[in-house]
Amino acid sequence: MSWKKPTLTLSSHTSDILLNHEQGHFNIAELKVRIVKDSLKKLWLKNNINIDSILSFYPKLKESGDLYDSFTKHGLDTIKQKKFDSIMNLELSKY
Description:
Elements: H1 12-43, H2 51-54, H3 57-72, H4 78-93
Helix pairs in contact: 1-3, 1-4
């Protein structure tokens, strides 16, 4: 259920760019979830599991999204957006 501000009139090409950029926000969150799941799997059998340290990513999630927006200029810098997409795809494939 994607959405955009109703005051924006976007071309099909611009809509594709925006959708790809928003996919990046999802990918950031997904990567962090995969890292947490991987950490929990590795620590599951250990006696001293510190869940708080594993979940410490959560407050940084907004910060990561803000940095992503700044880096890609909200998806308008298509070269940096493609670079981010490549890096994120590589990172997601690790988990």
